[in-house]
Amino acid sequence: MELSRYCIPWTPFHKHLEEAVVMLGSTAAVYHQDDKPFAVDGDLSFRRIPGTATGRELRYADVHYDHGCVDRDINCVFPLDRLHELAHEHRIGAVAEWHFSAGFTMALRDFARTTVPEIVEEVAKVRPDAVLLTGG
Question: Once rounded to an integer, what is the mean pLDDT over residues 44-59?
């Protein structure tokens, strides 16, 4: 599928949020503390972040955006703790088993050709009802 920079592809959501499994996807270079950091000069890889993780276990590896708010609370770019709270309050059905994050790259064609299909394949395995996308 060819994507236009002037539109965002989306699928209508027909489920009640109270029943939905929600996943996070990000380009804010967030990773789990037990995982390898992203290369800050450019990285085509992505990281799987366990749904059981907390904000305290998350790190970021990026020098391309202002980190002031992220240093105070990583949930501003990767709101995993907020998802756990919403699930606890029964405002969403559940937090997905896995979440995904990518880092900085200027190789956007390579990212679209290689990394994006890999992430899509991983997301398809988890089968969330909704994906919340965040950027860095």
Answer: 96
